[in-house]
Amino acid sequence: MRIAFVAFVLSMLMWPTAVGAQAQAQAQAQARPRPRPRAQAPVKAPAPAAAPDPAPAAVAGKWEGDIGEKEKAQHIVLTMTVSGSTVEGSILTPTAELGIEQGTIKGKTLEFTTGRRVGGEPLYFYWTGIVTGDTIAFSYIDQYRQGPFTKFTVTRQK
Q1: How is the chain split into domains, by residue range?
Q2: How far apart are CA 89 and CA 144, in angstroms?
Q3: Is it true that domain 61-157 has CATH number 3.40.50.300?
Q4: How far apart are CA 70 and CA 64, in angstroms?
Q5: Which of 28, 34, 73, 135 is the most buried (most CB within 10 A)?
Q6: Long-range contacts from 82-87, C-beta under 8 angstroms, 24+ separation
Q7: Phi and psi (nearest 5°) for 48?
């Protein structure tokens, strides 16, 4: 019984220390500065969706025009088909029929290449046209991109 009494007395002596330590820890926690909430960056509005490509101009069909000036002009006939933005077809000149290669139409801009052999060597031409209603204003230049662009207009045949 004596041991129980001694334990009781010791626990009573220790209790104020334990309670005091707990109170002291709470006081320190309250005295400690609390971290401030971080400032949040303003929420940005989502970027607007990119504008879709304009609808391709209608270039399918037969087009005719003259390249060159007056007496030296050569009559040409373009025949084109379109699938999505891909253009295929041919250009008929007085001296050759040229296949349209790598043809594309984006909005009103038509681009393609043609090729032929000259003296056994391949020669390519790069064509660009701007479609306005029933006309296409073309310019083209050879693969070496030398000299002035040749410019001419073709008209849709109905």
Answers
A1: 1-31, 61-157
A2: 24
A3: no
A4: 16
A5: 135
A6: 82/56, 82/58, 84/56, 85/53, 85/56, 87/59, 87/112
A7: -65, 150
**Segment 74-112, tens digit of pLDDT:** 999 999 999 999 999 999 999 889 999 999 999 999 999
Cβ-Cβ contacts under 8 Å for 132 (sequence gap 6 or more): 108
**Cβ count within 10 A of residue 124:** 14
Q: Which residues contact 93 (CB under 8 A, 6 or more apart)?
A: 67, 74, 75, 76
Cα–Cα distance between 135 and 61 in angstroms, integer?
A: 12
Backbone angles phi, psi at 133, to 5 degrees: 60, -120
* Cα–Cα distance for residue pair 58/46, rounded to 1 Å: 35
Q: How many whole angstroms separate alpha carbon 133 and alpha carbon 28?
A: 83
Instruction: Evaluate if pTM is beyond 0.90.
Output: no
pLDDT grade, residue 55 (50/70/90)? confident
Nearest to 105 by CA among 137, 139, 57: 57
Residue with tokens 């009103």: 108
Q: What angle do CA 52, 53, 59 make, to 5 degrees?
A: 145
